Amino acid sequence: MKILAITACPTGIAHTYMAAEQLERTGKQLGHSVKVETQGAMGIENRLTETDVQGADALILASDVAVRDRERFAGIARVLEVPVQLAIKNPAEIFARL
Amino acid sequence: MDYAFDFPLAGGLHAWPAAALRERSAAHSARVEFLNERTGRTAPMESVLGLLATDTRKGDPCRIRVEAGDEIEAHRDLVAFLQGPFLDCDRSLAPGTRASTVVPRLVERSGGRWWAGAGVSEGVGTGLGVRFAATEPPPPRGPQSGLEPEAELKALQGAIGVLRARLREELRLASHSAPRSVLEVHCALLEDPGWRGAIETAIHEGRLGAAAAVAAATQSAGAALGRSEHAAIRERALDLQDVADRLIRELCGEAAEASRPCLVQPSVLVAERLAPSALLALDPRLLRGLVLAEGGGTSHTAILARSFGIPCVTGLVPEAVEGKRLLVDGLRGLVIAEPTPEVEAYYRLESEGLRRWTAPTATLPEGRTQDGHPVRVLANISAAEEAARALEAGAGGIGLFRTEMLFLHRPTPPGEDEQFQAYARALREAAGRPVTLRLLDVGGDKPLAYLPLLPEANPFLGRRGVRWYPDQVDLVRIQVRAALLAAVHGHLRLMIPMVAEAEELRWVRGLVREVRADLAAEGVTPPEVPLGIMVEVPAAALNLEALAREADFLCVGTNDLVQYLFAADRGDPGLAKASHEWHPATLRLLAHIAQGAKATGKPLSLCGEMASRPRLLPLLLGLGFEDFSVAPSAVRGLRAALSSLDLNACLDLTRRALRAATAQEVQELLEAAPVSGAVPPLLDPDLVVLGVDCATKEEAIKLLVERLASAGRTRDALGLEEAIWAREAAYATGLGFGFAVPHCRSSAVAANAIAVLRLATPVAWSEDAEASLVLLFISRPEGTDEHLRVFARLARRLMDAGFRQGLLEAPHAEALLDLLHPVLAD
User: Fold this and answer.
1) DSSP assignment of B24-91, as one string?
2) Chain B residue with minimal CA distance to A86?
3) What is B149-253's CATH topology?
4) Is the pLDDT of residue B315 over 50?
5) How far apart, in whole angstroms, are the C-alpha atoms of residue B554 and residue B535?
6) Helix, strand and coil percent figures for chain B, each rounded to 5
7) What's chain A's average pLDDT?
8) Under an 8 A CB cutoff, do B792 and A17 touch?
9) A42 and B795 in contact by Cβ < 8 A?
10) What's B427-468 look like in SS3?
């Protein structure tokens, strides 16, 4: 599957990046194509583009704060919202839920 | 009419909010009562002690009841007050100091009893609670017909003689400067003619026995003191009561010991009030803390507690604490009953940190900024005996010797010899370092019994300092004589308070010349003594160059200068704002002063509380001040703060601050600007702690915060700790895998850092996670992207099990850092 994800946490210093790392690693292990955008203290990094959105099968929002520019993903049917902690502690469960 | 509310203040209903409530309701004729529904206690609003005794904590369901009189108006007004200004009581009544009511999480979480008051002597102490109620002396009897006034007078004389001898003996035995000055005040009070006259009148005319006469005279004198607007004067009523109680006991043949607590083991004394003499009679080795309902920071009991290093909290009356283990936190103003071992461990870390901070550190370089620019840090003292401690703390001399203490609270002024002894002693203690003696600064708010001053509508704008010298030439002449005679003992400078115009300086210079001529006629030739002025009146500041041409040196007194600049009484918490100190108007005036001093080449120093606030230091350095004088206890902190500052960064910050429009803008600049010099590396072996045991998460965080503080990564350890916990409150930062990554971005951070703690036994981090390896990231709010990138990289790397294993197994700090360094360097 082609999976997009956004991670974000209140301070945007640590959890955002840990969650991103976990989703990338686990997705890869499971044979998915995964691209993760981080919305942290440094702003948006690895931004998901229109091209990314086209043909994406699912979107994971691992966030404890409001996700910015969410309207970009109106076209994706499967959206899974989870706490950022879950992405860090049990990323496999998130993929299982998709 | 009732109004119900949940008590809103974090510190509970302590002395300040209680006083504010009382004052607000006193404006109304209605009867107002305060009810705490949790404790079931009520108190009339006019009794501060009653309000304190309701034992009200944040969140308690409370109610005010307004009846009779102007009840409708009073109800409306008090409700508006409770919903508005009252919420600021904690803050506005403690200008410039950090809220004294930050309760450590561990204490809140422990579920035990604790009380919040006002910390008046810093430090942490633990001991068994000893509840002490001073036994009142026998109640005074009313007028008696069969009384022999002559016999009563004789008894009074005899008792005064005995007490005088006792006080002198205690004075002889006192080794410490603070006790000496207190006992001297008590000796003087005993001889006070007004009080003695009132006692005698009560015996003759009131037909009272001697003891009853003492009680009656003391009550009216005490009430007069109690009406003063100034806390420092009100608190003197305690001293008078102390002397009176001792005298009454002498008259009744009752041993003084009956009125004094006796300590047999490490103890925390809990009392409504404690007379200074009772504190002096206690064994300082066993007295670990003091909890008093009455007495502010300027009471003699508080001053003595500070001088002995005994933590003291006032404004509260904890109940049922006899025989319980009590911990006194004099920094935050907390008293904790039966602290858990975890709470004690937490405080142990704090007192160790405090000791490190205050331990003699002869190796600290003499005041220098990080980039090597020399800055002098001197000390303010009020008694010669304080000089030794100030110099030991690292002061480069005495920048301000306030001589008022010698003159206050006594019936007659000190003579030439007494003054000479005091000045010579300070000079000898200073051993060649400069001692700046400020000539008598009394009048207005500091009355002298022997100096009848006309009542003034506005004492702070009245006959203060140099202004009354021409009316009291002899008093000033004796002081100048004593000072010039003492000058051979060291490096003396004389300073004139409250100068507004050049004529005042010329007048004093003329007097000094006369005294010198007198001494020459007596065959004494004192060394030359520089004569300088305090710059604390805005007129002097604005006409600085003219004054500087005639003065030998200048010293800015910021406390008065700021209050005069803003026309805001600094004793009035509703008017004086801490932010006045960094208001652009103040900064521009200080800049003008610094330029004037520079243009004339005259030495310039700054004394006043501004100098002892590390956060304002960058501005003062940037304005061109290089010479500061602060309380002895602030010397070390100031020198440490200096050593982390970069002068160019300070200059740059100050240039921007001088263009600001409001204090708020300056504050934002202060919070945003990094004024440290070379940025220290994120990782440092000193910030790695391996193989220790912590019982709780709180202790683990505290340990890292103390490490960061002693490594200079924060100048506000409490603020940093709060910021970490605020982040932790969002959700715990445990990752699972035995790792935790607490972090914060806060202006309490002086330099970004990563601190590492590896625990011997894992500690519970959140409900479902333990941690044995804690990586604490701290970052300044403006945190450069570079640092954030490092944190982000490290966070990602922690998701690698092999990397985590390496950190858990690294044999020593360097090995652990070797694993972290490559992540940072990516």
Assistant:
1) HHHTSSSEEEEEETTTTEEEETT-HHHHHHT---TT-EEEEEEESSSHHHHHHHHHHHHHTGGGGHHH
2) B735
3) Enzyme I; Chain A, domain 2 (1.10.274)
4) yes
5) 7
6) 50, 20, 35
7) 91
8) yes
9) no
10) HHHHCCCEEEEECCCCECCECECCECCCCCCCHHHCCCHHHH
Residue B363, pLDDT above cutoff 50: no
A28, A98 contact by CB (below 8 A) = no
Q: Where are the beta strands (DSSP E) in B519-595?
A: 531-535, 554-557
Choose which CATH entry (3.40.50.150, 3.30.1340.10, 2.10.260.10, 3.30.70.260) describes domain B2-93.
3.30.1340.10
Q: Which residues pair with B763 in a beta bridge?
A: B771
Amino acid at A72: R
Q: What is the pLDDT of residues A16-34, one digit of tens each?
A: 999 999 999 999 999 999 9
Query: B448-455 long-range contacts, Cβ below 8 Å, gap at least 24?
Result: B448/B407, B448/B408, B448/B413, B449/B192, B449/B194, B449/B409, B449/B410, B449/B411, B450/B410, B450/B411, B450/B412, B450/B413, B451/B475
Secondary structure element (H or E) that encloses residue B692, with its range: strand B688-692
Look at residue B659 and tell me whether its pLDDT is greater than 90: yes
The answer, for B771 touching chain A at a CB cutoff of 8 Å, is: no
**Closest Cα of chain A to B644: distance in Å?**
26
User: What token pair was written down for B401?
Assistant: 């010797």
Tokens 């920048």 -> residue: B399
Q: Tokens 């030998």 identify what position?
A: B552
pLDDT tens digit string along B729-763? 877 788 778 999 998 888 888 888 999 999 999 99
**Cβ-contact B653, B729 below 8 angstroms:** no
Q: CB count, 10 Å around CB of B88?
A: 14
Residue B740 at interface with chain A, using a CB cutoff of 8 Å: no
B788, A42: Cβ pair inside 8 Å? yes
Residues of B serving a catalytic function are 14, 300, 607, 743
Distance from CA of B316 to the nearest CA of A (A): 39
Two tokens, residue B297: 């920071």
Which region among B9-18, B309-318, B769-778 has the lowest average model confidence (pLDDT)?
Answer: B9-18
* DSSP summary character for residue B5: E
Write out chain A residues lying below 8 Å of B777, CB-based: 13-14
Q: Residue B558: name the closest of B506, B628, B458, B476 by CA.
A: B628
What Cα–Cα distance (Å) separates residue B369 from each residue in A72, B14, B619?
52, 40, 13
Q: CATH assignment of B114-134+260-358?
A: 3.50.30.10
Structure tokens given for B593? 């002063």
Confidence at residue B297, expressed as pLDDT on a 0 to 100 scale: 65
B789 chain-A contacts, CB cut-off 8 A: 42
Q: In this predicted complex, what is the ipTM?
A: 0.94
pLDDT at residue B138, rounded to an integer: 62
Distance CA B213, CA B198 (A): 8
CATH 3.40.930.10 applies to domain B685-825: yes
Q: How far is CA A46 from CA A4, A22, A49, B194, B426, in A?
A: 11, 15, 9, 83, 68
Within a 10 A sphere around the Cβ of B643, how many other Cβ atoms?
Answer: 18
Is the four-CA dihedral B273, B242, B237, B282 of positive or negative sign? negative
Q: What one-character-per-residue DSSP string does A54-76 give? A: TT--EEEEEESSPPTTGGGGTT-
Where do the domains of chain A lie, and which CATH numbers do they carry?
Answer: 2-97 (3.40.50.2300)
Q: What are the CA-CA distances from residue B501 to residues A57, B5, B477, B546, B549 (Å)?
A: 83, 55, 20, 9, 12
Q: Does B458 score more than 80 pLDDT?
A: no
Domain B376-529, CATH = 3.20.20.60
B-chain residues within 8 Å CB-CB of A22?
799
B795 touching A (Cβ < 8 Å):
yes
Q: Closest CB to B743: pick one of A11, A42, A88.
A: A11
Q: Domain extents for chain B? A: 2-93, 114-134+260-358, 149-253, 376-529, 685-825
